[in-house]
Amino acid sequence: LSKVQLFSQLNEHQLNAIASICMKRTFKVGTVLFHEKELGDAFYIVFTGSVKIYTSSSAGEEKILTLAKAGDSFGELSLIDGKPRSASAQTLEDSTLLTLTAKNFLDLLKNHFDISLCIMQELCQRLRDTNQHVYDLTFLDARTRVIKNLIKLANKNGTRQGNVISIRMTLNYDELSQMAGVQKPILMQVMRDLNEKQILAFVGQEMRLDLAKLRGG
Ligand code: CMP
Fold it and tell me: Which pLDDT band holds residue 217 (cuts at 50, 70, 90)?
């Protein structure tokens, strides 16, 4: 728990108290944890693995809002404002999650200002990210959006060796294009082009990116 950003200010005694009210559960890849518009009853912390947070159109198209990986948390909005889930959540790989009931989560916020502040900071960051995404969709062309999204993914999920970043791929092409906010053929075209310029390569399950060259475009 000490590795979870939300709980980083707490002492061992407080962490133990939280551990005793968390439930640890393992979910197979592809498990939908909850759907958008359902009532929220739990708060989630990713212990291992990763989860995609997404919204869907009535035609069944998806838009990924964010990826939650080890140490990240989600599911707080509906517990705080009492409204339905604002997005759906699905595991991208076999994952172990810690869950807190709505009551325990709200009690934590009441009793620990540090945790409340962390949640507020997390909400601020999400609003900033969303503003940035609106900017990108409004002002950037599709190719730049794909490149920017690859850089973001590399910075968040990659391991670095010199200029090369390796990302273990848990997303398919549909999901990558949804994240960047471009049509799949455009994503494929940009990735082919980057591959020809030796900026991007696939090695087994890993995508390798030359970050210095990628920033140059
Ligand atoms: P909740 O609405 O309870 O359920 C869906 C969760 O997804 C939500 O709480 C947040 O934790 C998370 N979420 C929703 N929208 C975003 C977003 N734009 N960026 C990051 N996380 C989000």
Answer: low
Amino acid (one-letter) located at 201: A
ipTM comes to 0.99
On the question of pLDDT at 13 being above 70, the answer is yes
54 Cα: distance to centroid of ligand 1 (angstroms):
8
Kindly report the protein residue whose alpha carbon is nearest to atom 12 of ligand 1.
Answer: 74
Query: Which of the four pLDDT bands, split at 50, 70 and 90, describes residue 205?
Result: confident
- Please choose, from the candidates 48, 22, 53, 19, the residue with its C-alpha nearest in 3D space to the C-alpha of residue 36: 53
* Average pLDDT rounded to a whole number, residues 47-71: 93
Cα(147)–Cα(206) distance, integer angstroms: 17
CA 103/CA 100 separation, integer angstroms: 8
Task: Give the residues surrounding ligand 1 with Cβ less than 6 Å away.
Answer: 40, 53, 65-66, 74-78, 85-87, 126, 130
- d(Cα 47, Cα 30) in Å, to the nearest integer? 17
Helices vs. strands in the chain: H and E counts, helices first:
8, 12
Could you identify the residue written with the tokens 């409204």?
83
> How many angstroms does the Cα of residue 62 sit away from the middle of ligand 1?
14
C-alpha to C-alpha distance for 201 and 191, rounded to whole angstroms:
9
